[in-house]
Amino acid sequence: MSEGGLTLAKAPVVEPPRPRRFRVTWPVLLSAFGALVVLLSVTRAVTGAADLTSAGAINAAVALAVPIGLAGLGGLWSERAGVVNIGLEGMMVMGTWCGAWGALHFGNPWAGVLAGAIGGALGGLLHAVATVTFGVDHIISGVAINILGVGVTEFLSKITFAEMPGGGDSQSPPVPKPGIVSVPGIGDGLAALESGHWFLVSDLAGIVRGLLTNVSLFTVLAIALVPLSYYVLWRTAFGLRLRSCGERPVAAESLGVNVYFHKYAAVLVSGALAGLGGAFLSLVAATAYREGQTGGRGFIGLAAMIFGNWRPGGLAAGATLFGYTDALQLRRGGESVHALLLVVAILVAAAAVYQLVAQRRTRAAVISGIAAVAVFVVFALTSTIPSEFTSVAPHVTTLLVLSLAAQRLRPPAADGVPYRRGQAK
Amino acid sequence: MSDGTAGGREAGSTFADRLMGRVKLGGLLSLAAPVLAIVFAGLITSVILLVTGAPPIETMGTMVDYGLQPRPLTLALNLASGYYLSALAVAIGFRMNLFNIGVDGQYRLAALIAAAVGGAITLPAPLHVAAILLVAVLVGAGWASIAAVLKVRRGVSEVISTIMLNAIATALGSWLLNKDRLAVEVAGSNNIGTQPLGPSAQVPGIPLIPGSPLKVDGLIILAAVMGLLYYVVLNRTRFGFDLRATGRSEPAAVASGVNVKRMIFTTMIISGAVAGLAGMPNLLGESYSYSLNFPPGLGFTGIAIALLGRNNPVGIAFGAALWAFLDTSSNILQIHDISPEIVEIMKGTIVLSVIVAYELVHRYRISAGQRRVSKELSGGPKVQAEGASA
């Protein structure tokens, strides 16, 4: 120990004044959820768009959020290990075919689930070989895998499903579906409450009924994967090592971490999760495999992950949001999404007030205020939104979130940077 | 300058540098990579064909025989001109590390609006064509400028924003292509499309291939001119130098006085403008209207071809020709009861293996260079200083 080190240690430790930081805790989360329910309830009462909080819409929202969330989780695993995975879409497409084929071939939906995961993982393996072993640029490899995934899947569906009774070149016969569960004894009571159309009570009943009844077992499995991923990535030594490969692979290697192994593992899991998302589409969301079934959901999953700032909780919130807008669009889309504009206007207005009062950022508040008024004017002047535009709600949301918050997002430091064993820095 | 230092300098370049053609590979070796990839893809395809019970050599022979007949060859050339323009648009971005995945949305929106404007106005022949091309360029550039602004002003990655903008362009397109707005019913079908272009906007074809009942789209000349322009602007102008410098090393570009943000903005817009042209050979030479069955997916094809051709205008031309040839020649497979999708697998394999092959060739060159250096070092102390710096 040197003299300098000792004096430094003796010097009074001055805690730098910590800036007040917003932290997400359980009370905050619960009150935010409560506020959202009240807001939706008010909007439903004002606009009469019953589907905003109906059990059917909520149920559909969960079902639509699952494939997006699974793809997002896939993105999370691989990007946490430093491998950008644009190929999620292609792996998901593989999953749709594998899921349907497995379920039909073995006559068991869970065989399909497993097959979907394996199919996606094969795509992941290809991505890992290209990016980790050969050091190919991640985005280019991902684009190539998307091309390849679609080609392989279309080819396979032609040579398998075309000969099956009830199937065709681009469509499989109906598949066996995983079982559906409900929390017993609450369905009828909640349905009665919901049909009353009382302020707040009926809305809550609709939301609870949508969440707890007629839920596919596959959905339960998928939702369980979110906390599981959090646990593995943030609470185990394996997860710490995996994330260190995404932050600073050279440092990880100097500590004896096998960077290649962890990257491979991450990308394989990533592909399997995307494949599960694809299998969910063909087994649960639809009744059969159809060509082009994913409709870019792999990309939306990636967007949900960015929305969630590369964290499982935020990713789940993003997936839910996108699933919800997707569900509204399917259920009297024009009316429901139009009602959502009012929610957006109120939220932006609230943000403006917060900026003015709590943060004293006048200029930002004025801009937000103008935006809120603009959204409200659009809401007041139109009566419905063309169906073509309701389908792109997730994409527009992603662009808005990115343009407003791109500076505050923090991806893993070595995300997308090629790494070779033994490189200098 | 010894070969050793050259190899050493390349070791410091990133993969992107080598892939984007910013580092020169040796003449023969740079050809070896795509040839290797195509052979490898052929092998994979043969294995798949064998597994599904089709004779691989015969199948490919049939494809080549059919593909080289005058009519399919003409069709392939027509496809290739669109592919070429799309790949050029992607390549412009690639040369400075921009991934314009949004070419797909840009060309479709541009073709739709250009077709609608072209159908609504009447002008003398050359002016009419020029007006349509101008609209297409403006729309393509305008749509790309959204991603450019988001990148420059808000730091949003162009990869994500262009993917999202593609989906939004699809929605906007299907909203516009409605009988209440830009579309009319196509005579004799239940398809809808924009008002067909008048004769003054139809570019006459060129009877390039003898014995073919079809003519080659006149705008293949536009594709060739754009390729030439791409070469001249990138390699012979100050702007092109700045662009390549920014792509190769941003700090070095800043030090030499390049405004990187403006460069990103300009490049993205030029890429979008060229992307706007990608649908024009088809629109002005064959379909004369943007309808529901306007060819989709040109943008993603462009990415694959730009990679295959290593952003070199001649290489891209070969890539576009190969892609178009595979597309048209696969039509014969259906008659032989083989799924034409086998070609999609072949294409995907080519792209994936060509990028791996470039990397392998590059690694081979580095290790060869290192071996040469170590041999020279053991031979005498003359090159020691150079060797050490490498």
Automatic annotation (TrEMBL), chain B:
CDD domains in alphabetical order: TM_PBP1_transp_TpRbsC_like
Q: Name one Pfam family in it.
A: BPD_transp_2
Subcellular location per UniProt equals: Cell membrane
How is the protein disposed in the membrane?
Answer: Multi-pass membrane protein
- Per the record, the major location class is membrane
Q: Print the keywords alphabetically.
A: Cell membrane, Membrane, Transmembrane, Transmembrane helix
Q: Which domain of life is it from?
A: Bacteria
Any transmembrane segments, and where? 28-53, 73-94, 106-123, 129-150, 159-177, 216-234, 263-284
**Mind telling me what this protein is named?**
ABC transporter permease
